[in-house]
Amino acid sequence: MRKYITLAAACMLSMTALADDFNLYSATATSGSNKIESVENLQKLTFENGTMVVIRKDGTTSTINLSSISKLYFSTEEAVGIEDVTAEDDATATKGEVYDLTGRKINIAPNNLPKGLYIIDGKKKFIR
Asked: Model confidence over 21-38: pLDDT tens digits?
């Protein structure tokens, strides 16, 4: 049991470290997205009597009426995802590479392929 608790604590701490770049936003039907606070400054969020109470680490609080919120979400201000895409030109492509039409690489020499349609050296070829 102690191992599971230690593992859960480690997971929560690592997720907290990753969340420092995120902010809490709310969206309303009329005003769009509004930044509420950065995650690193939040101490606690409570929901009571139709309101959300934001308690910050510095001790200040703010109250937001839940009926005005259409969406509540965490997001980062910087783009995340694919950072760099490089194209492979024909000069760097390996000769003799064979793929099926779904993009799977086929490890059979081009002269031993069964009948069908393939992509060989980047060009569609029909093997009869």
From this structure: 788 888 877 777 788 888
What Rg value do the Cα atoms of the chain yield, rounded?
27
d(CA 57, CA 80): 27
Burial class (CB in 10 A: 0-12, 13-18, 19+), 26: buried
**The CATH classification of domain 20-76, taken from the options 3.40.50, 1.10.1760, 2.30.30, 2.60.120:** 2.30.30
pLDDT one-digit tens code per residue, 34-63 = 888 888 888 888 888 888 888 888 989 888
Give the H or E element holding residue 11.
helix 2-18
> How many whole angstroms from its chain centre is CA 111?
42
